[in-house]
Amino acid sequence: MLFDFAAILAFIIIAVLFVLVTLIFSWVVRPSKPSAEKASTYECGERPFGPSWIKFNIRFYVIALIFIIFEVEVLVLFPWAVIYKSLGLFGFVEMLIFVGILLIALAYLWKKGDLDWVKSNETNSK
Amino acid sequence: MLKEYIDAIKGFAERNLPVINVPVELWYIAWIFIFGGAILGGALLFAGLGAYVERRVAGFLQSRLGPNRVGPQGLLQFMADGIKLVLKEDLIPDAADKLLFRAAPYVLFIGTLGVFAALPFAQNIGITNINIGLLYIMAISSFVVIAIIMAGWASANKWSLYGGMRSAAQIISYEIPIGISFLLVIMITGTMNMHQIIEGQAGGLHRWFVFRYPPFTMIAFLVYYVAAMAEVNRTPFDIPEAESELVGGFHTEYSGMRFAMFYMAEYANMFAVSAIGTILFLGGWQSPLPFNILVPLGTDFISSNQFFIQMLIWLEGFGWFLSKVLWLVFLMMWLRWTLPRYRVDQLMAVCWKVLLPVAFFNMLAVGLWLLL
What we know:
A: mainly alpha
């Protein structure tokens, strides 16, 4: 088993080495004529205005929060699923309670409009 | 798994070659890297040919020819593209975060190649045989999201930032239906080991998990496949790279070989998610027929050498595995050139309001079925 994980580590090293070697090879053979115009940020051919690291939609943050809740829940269920058959009815009922709470959470988010990308003003004012 | 192969090679070398005094550790390390290099080569070859086939399929679907000049039927097109990309100037914008910009392709390839380390290709053939295979795959494939956020943020470009953020939101959202589909298979087999999951599907078409508990596992397979298409940013879920609104998405500022890394990783990931779908639901290297085709042929007509028959079993298994995976990949291409793109709000709605509840109730249904 330990050998298998060593092989995985070797794979990670191979992946890094591959990118490194290819980029070094490309660095040797490719031309390099930098100019201020080439190094400017692309914005459809216009001169870029304002900083690029702008404030963006808070929705991404909310999605990340919801993701953490559900992903952790799925990961918690992984060991449960492995021994599901030996747990029998007890395991099923336990999962029902666990998933049930999460489904209530999902229903709540749905009702609040947090699953909609564009949250309408109507739901905001509620 | 890998250790057994290396031991076998070592035994063979010791029996047949004059005495070689290589330290055991060095021997193992060298062979791990040879096998790893072979898998990497295979993945890259698939990426190159996949890109060619995709353009060709796109051509035929749109009543045109596609690339057909370089080599027979344009087969060497990917090599020409590769040479061109190597020779391209590599630009990093002045405003970019240089360290993260350079680091992103490395992180991306760790996530891409890491998945290949856990895939079983044929009976007892694969790099590793770890007991937490599925969990490992879920974990290591998350590197791709990190790489995309890194690339999008470090480019200091508004298109890249939006592309990267959208991509991250999309990939993490669709990871949940995928996780639940995994759960379903783990519940049925009681193991996270990929080899054992495939062995649980032996005995022909009707034993494959996609047909085992109708219609629930079939729904789970569809949920997995749709979510996997979103995971690898394929149309109709290619919002992060929607060229009509975001130019190139998170890789807008990348050029030359660095861009090629993202391109190759996309096709390698397509292979990986199709392979996982095949392993979990379509029986991996199991034949759709309840008997082997090649083995009786070998024993009756050619030779009854044990080693030879073993090779035939592996060859047949690998053939089935590859044909299923390539079919799923082709399906992805077909869908890409058939369907229009989703809007970003529709994309989120499909995941959270359709796939997630369906996957949950599916899981409950299969759980109940297993109890009865």
